[in-house]
Amino acid sequence: MIPIPQYPLYSAAIADLDAVQVNYYLDEDDHWALNIEELRRALTEARTHCNPKVLCAINPGNPTGQVQTKQVIEDVIRFAFEEGLFLLADEVYQDNVYAEGCEFHSFKKVLFEMGAEYSDNLELASFHSISKGYMGECGYRGGYMEVINLDPGVRTELMKLFSIRLCPPVAGQVILAVITNPPQPGEPSYERFRREKQAVLDSLAERARLIEDVFCNIPGFHCNPVQGAMYSFPRIDLPPKAIEAAEEAGHAPDMFFCLKLLEETGICVVPGSGFGQIEGTYHFRMTILPKFEKLNILLNKLKSFYQDFVEQYS
Ligand SMILES: Cc1ncc(COP(=O)(O)O)c(C=O)c1O
To answer: 130, 191, 222, 309: which has the highest count of C-beta atoms within 10 A?
Structure first.
């Protein structure tokens, strides 16, 4: 079971394993919250044709940029426990939380707070990566998976699988070691580490706010707050004539929009259809990563491109 919109490596992995993809939809009208009723609907429907085993949650979300509340995480854990699902918690954006009042709650921590009935039984794997957060070391390919309550037979197979794989480069392993064991107060590197980390996170938060402000004020854009991760995922209105033109060109409407944007402005964003979205809605994903000064220029270009696009196809 995967969220829609989703990080497409999940649908690709499911296809690769010849497994069945079960979609549950995040609630765009409620800051892309994960809704338990929707999980239940997806599971009940899926059980008519397959035997769902795994529930995947991405928090903070890619491409949707939301941070789930502690209550939601508790509800998801209870749901997975009651339904006998293995829970995959993709928490690679755990350091990227920007919005006031939002906080990252790890599935493992919440699980252990819920008592032994849950923490001794629920099978949980959580993921982290050095490619996100404040470090953004994408090319070094380091990350980890922490697994709890894994069936011993499955653990044996998992160890075999890892043993036949090659390890990531030493640099990636060193970075991972530093991230999992960062400088502590009183140690020589601590002050500098703290300052640099905070500067990166403050700058990302500033960019998240700027994108949100601009997108929320473009008529035809509908944008949730960028609470975390590294993305904004606005819904955009596309005129019927643009949708017809996209069909003629053999593209999904949001792909058509994104290609035109790229061709005319050089701005590269990813169409919502790459992540999944409710049929008849159109989105794109934009990262908050461009430098602040460039971002302003880029957002102005994007805004006037959209206005011209709407006019052209109206
Ligand atoms: C939600 C999510 N999970 C996992 C990954 C994979 O991270 P990495 O490339 O560091 O393995 C990404 C990368 O974009 C992601 O967005």
So the answer is: 130
Report the mean per-residue pLDDT for the chain: 97
Q: Which of 4, 6, 7, 88 to mutate to test the pocket of ligand 1 (most atoms within 8 A of CB)?
A: 7
Residue 91 has a pLDDT of 98
Q: For tokens 């990636």, what's the residue?
A: 172
pLDDT reported for residue 168: 84
Question: What CATH number labels 190-312?
Answer: 3.90.1150.10
Name the CATH code of domain 2-180 (choices 1.10.3720.10, 3.40.50.300, 3.40.640.10, 1.10.1710.10): 3.40.640.10
User: Among 132, 135, 285, which residue has the most ligand 1 atoms within 8 Å of its CB, making it the best to mutate?
Assistant: 132
Q: Is 192 exposed, middle or buried (0-12, 13-18, 19+ CB in 10 A)?
A: exposed
With 90 as the cut, is the pLDDT of residue 166 above it? no
pLDDT (average), residues 51-58: 98
